[in-house]
Amino acid sequence: MCEKHSSSAKNESATKSSSAGSRRRRLWDLSRDTHCPIIGVCIPLAVLRRLISKALGGNMQADDYEIHVGAIAECSQRNRVSEILQEDLDQRYALTIKRFRIAKTREALVQLWVDAIYQGDVAGAFWAGLTHPLCDYSIQEGMCRDMHMLQHQAGATVRADIVRFNALLEENAILGREMARQQERQTRHIQEKAHEIEQLQQTIVQLRAENIGKESVIAYLNTDLQALKNTVPELASRQRLQQKIEQMISRQHELEQLVRELKHQLLSATRRTAQHTEQTEQHQVQEVKSVEIKHHRTIPIAIQLQQKNVLCVGGRSGNVASYRDLIERVGGRFAHHDGGMEDSQSLLDSSLAAADLVICQTGCISHNAYWRVKEFCKRTGKRCVFVENPSVSSLARGLEQASEELESGQNEEHSSPTS
């Protein structure tokens, strides 16, 4: 039966093709097996319902399937419905029809159809190709087969799209619920902020009122102050004097600070000078000591102390060894006290009491020790020689002077009984 229907469709198509000549075929010129894909693919369902309603005068009570089947039945012959559908298809796909006119051979026509399939624009190409004057039964059958498979693929794609659409609907519902929660949180946050803003505005109003009150008080106080100024005589001159006193006090503080700085600088300079002087004196003492060490043994001393206790008070610490060597060479016993520089003052009295002869270095002794030595020797009559220069040679001259005084005293003691 299928072969019979196919052969009849083939004969019908061949008959209509031969009768058509070189002009484009009309919808009613095509075989019945092409009407279904043309109506289903090339005309949107809403447009088909509108066109059929227009053809029937607006009196149509049918569902989409009945409209589809009825339109296919009307396309087999020329009538008002087929003419309206023909006009709509030509207007809708005018650009595609114009592009297919350049095909002058069956191979070119087939190539245009294949390109349309690859480009995904098959609706207009299907109508332009089927109505082309060069479209024969073999081209028509190939296009219908391709369209049939494309409809299957489109159905699978639609099913996959439906699955994805349902997943997107579910995801959209989840996102919608999340967005509703976010909106609820945002609304609550906005309400909280609005409440805070309202409280801040109330605070601002209160502060402004307080500020206005304070400004009024300040104005009243300024008025009272001006009145008091007017009642006090010579207030401006007193204020100028007060400012001048404050300036003088500030200047005095600056001068006191300058004096403190100058004192500090003077103290630093004095310390540096003392250090330099001490270093210089130490250097000179070392030089004198080195010279005296070389020459003190050559100093001629014509005295003999005969085991007398000789106390040397003061003098430089670097010369003590030379003092000791000189006194012990002439037979004396040497004792030393630094005159209160480092040795205790209480030891000075005991040292003076044990001494037979006192040598006082006046240039290197404290004032207190000097007067104590002088007072002690004067009170006890003990022999005391004052030496200004701390050198060994000055000590030797002092010893000679003391020896002469001792000898003269002894001679007077021996001569007094005989007389």
UniProtKB/TrEMBL annotation:
InterPro entries: UCP020408 (IPR016772). Residues 8-20 have a biased composition (Polar residues). Residues 1-20, 398-419 are annotated as: Disordered. Residues 180-272 form a coiled coil. Keywords: Coiled coil. Belongs to the UPF0751 family. This is DUF2325 domain-containing protein. It comes from Undibacterium amnicola. The lineage of its organism: Bacteria, Pseudomonadati, Pseudomonadota, Betaproteobacteria, Burkholderiales.
